[in-house]
Every structure is written in structure tokens, then in C-alpha cells.
Design goal:
Elements: H1 2-18, E1 29-31, H2 38-55, E2 59-64, H3 73-84, E3 93-98, E4 103-108, H4 118-133, H5 137-151, H6 158-209, H7 233-282, E5 310-315
Parallel strand pairs: 1-2, 2-3
Antiparallel strand pairs: 3-4, 4-5
Length: 316
């Protein structure tokens, strides 16, 4: 008797799975209702792929005209998630809308339920309603994707912002170097100025005390003062030494700043390369709808992929 009961349950399960459509290859958006055009699907795919690459969460969009007979939308979306294997770590999301029946559901796998609670899922579905009531189906699905991205801290404009910050950083770098040089060289400039001023004062003293040959000036230096001119070799050497030291230290500072700038440029090139590779992955359409991270978007899963009834349902 137990064997018969198990066979009946198995046959029911197989029959139920048989009514679940296969995913359309290489897309996150499965528009069986035909309410979206190719350009809309392309834009949605790009956004959903960015969500997967940055947050690691897979999102399947399923639009049907009507649900299969004897199916409630909760069961249908649950089986979609399980059969397709949406999600890599029991954290996938499945959105189903039955257009003619005006029903929608966001199915949430176990490891995403903490973020997409039933109340939050209902809020997201409420955001879609005004669009669907006006038959703006792309607008509604796009709103869904934006709300999910917001909750997952995915900013679709982040690349442009990073680029702007980088350019501003390049402009500011030279100002920092120039400011550092000014601050560093200011003491040496002051020393040089003092030495030059002292030399000038000594020269004036020499001229005053050396006397003049004619014109009523002094014939000789006053008593206690030597008429021999002051030697300026020491002051000249001091001036030269100060200038040389300032020049050497300035060169050292410039070399250090140049080395630092080179390191920053290398780091920037490395980041740019990583961002370029990330953008390439985000634009790789062959990876769209690669449910569970396997080799085919049409594969089925033997496990339930973490789907156990979490999420919310509403109409519009």
C-alpha cells in the first residue's frame, strides 16, 4: 500500500513538473505572454545580469497569459524555481505574472527571505500595480528590477560615478604635489633669504668702514676697526650649502612623489582592467539565464533550490 501511495505521489509530481515550461535559453526574461518587445527584454536582461554579477542573486522573470489549468500562482512559481534551479546558494528570486488573470507573485528562496520578507515583497508588488493597470508591462517589470537592485545595494550607475571620482583624483594629485613642495621648500627659502640679507649688510659695512680716497670721506677705518675688507667666502659657502641642501631635498621629495604617483597609476590601471573585465562579464549575453551557474540555461534541478513558499502574492 505504501509503495502504491509513493507511486501516486511521484506520478503527480512528474505531471506537475511536465506542465512547467522550459526556460527560454540565454535570457532572464521569459515572456511567454508576448507583452514585451526585444529592446525591452534586452534592457531588462542587462540590469538583471548586473544584479547577479554584483550581488550573486539570480532573478527569473516569467510572464504568462494564463496559468496552467489547476495551478495556483503560488504553486506555479514554486515549481518554476525548483525545476529551473534558480539561485546558486538557495537564494534565488522568481517573479511570475499571469497577464490575463491579473495575478502576480514574487517567490523568494530560503536564503533571501531575511531581506525579501513577505511585507517587503508585497511592497515591491504594490509598486508594479500602477504600471500593469495601464498595460505598461515593461515599466512594471523594470520597477521590480530596480526595487530588487535597491534592496541588494546594486547601483546601475556606479561605473560612471567611479570614473568621475578617478578623473577628479587625477586633477587633485598635481595640486597636492605642488602644495607639498611649497610647504617643504619654504624653510629653505627663508634661510636663503636671511643669508643673502646678511651678506648685503656686510657689504654695506665694508663700504662704510673702508674709507674713501676723496670727497671728504674717511681716509681710514675708525679706531678699533680694521680697514681690511671682510671676507665673504664663508657667507658665500653658507649660501651655496643651503641652496645645495634645499635642491637635494627637493629632488628627493620629487622622486618620492613620482614613485608614489607611479604606484597609484599602476593601481589605477589594475582597477580599470578589473572593471573592464567585470563589464565584459556583465555584457556577456551567453551567460544570461544560466540558472544555478551550470552550463545550460535549460537545465533542471533535482533539489528544491531553497524554494519553500517564501514571498508574496497580489493582483492588480
Amino acid at each position: 500500500m505504501k509503495k502504491i501511495f509513493a507511486l501516486v505521489l511521484l506520478s503527480i509530481s512528474v505531471a506537475a513538473f511536465a506542465q512547467i515550461p522550459k526556460p527560454i535559453p540565454n535570457t532572464f526574461v521569459n515572456d511567454y505572454a508576448g507583452v514585451l518587445d526585444k529592446a525591452d527584454i534586452k534592457k531588462l536582461n542587462k540590469k538583471i545580469n548586473i544584479i547577479e554579477k554584483r550581488a550573486g542573486i539570480q532573478l527569473a522573470i516569467v510572464l504568462v497569459d494564463t496559468l496552467p489549468r489547476d495551478y495556483e500562482i503560488e504553486e506555479f512559481s514554486l515549481l518554476i524555481g525548483r525545476k529551473w534551479g534558480v539561485g546558486k546558494n538557495n537564494d534565488g528570486l522568481v517573479y511570475v505574472a499571469a497577464i490575463s488573470q491579473k495575478k502576480q507573485r514574487l517567490e523568494v528562496a530560503r536564503n533571501s527571505e531575511a531581506k525579501f520578507t513577505e511585507s517587503r515583497s508585497l511592497e515591491i508588488l504594490d509598486e508594479i500595480k500602477p504600471y500593469f493597470r495601464n498595460q505598461e508591462y515593461y515599466g512594471g517589470v523594470n520597477k521590480l528590477v530596480d526595487e530588487i537592485a535597491y534592496d541588494l545595494d546594486v547601483d546601475f550607475q556606479i561605473s560612471a560615478q567611479q570614473s568621475a571620482v578617478k578623473n577628479a583624483g587625477k586633477d587633485a594629485k598635481w595640486y597636492e604635489i605642488l602644495g607639498g613642495l611649497i610647504v617643504f621648500l619654504a624653510p629653505f627659502a627663508l634661510i636663503y633669504y636671511i643669508i643673502k640679507r646678511r651678506n648685503r649688510n656686510r657689504t654695506m659695512q665694508q663700504q662704510f668702514y673702508s674709507g674713501y680716497d676723496g670727497g671728504g670721506g674717511y681716509a681710514s677705518a675708525p679706531r678699533g676697526y680694521s680697514s681690511r675688507p671682510y671676507s665673504s667666502s664663508g657667507s658665500r659657502f653658507g649660501s651655496f650649502a643651503a641652496g645645495a641642501a634645499a635642491g637635494y631635498l627637493a629632488n628627493e621629495l620629487v622622486d618620492k612623489l613620482t614613485d608614489k604617483e607611479k604606484e597609484e597609476e599602476e593601481e589605477e590601471r589594475r582597477r580599470e582592467q578589473e572593471e573592464y573585465e567585470a563589464r565584459q562579464r556583465e555584457n556577456d549575453e551567453s551567460d544570461y539565464g544560466n540558472w544555478g551557474g551550470g552550463g545550460s540555461s535549460g537545465r533542471s534541478q533535482s533539489s528544491n533550490s531553497g524554494f519553500s513558499g517564501g514571498g508574496a502574492t497580489s493582483d492588480w
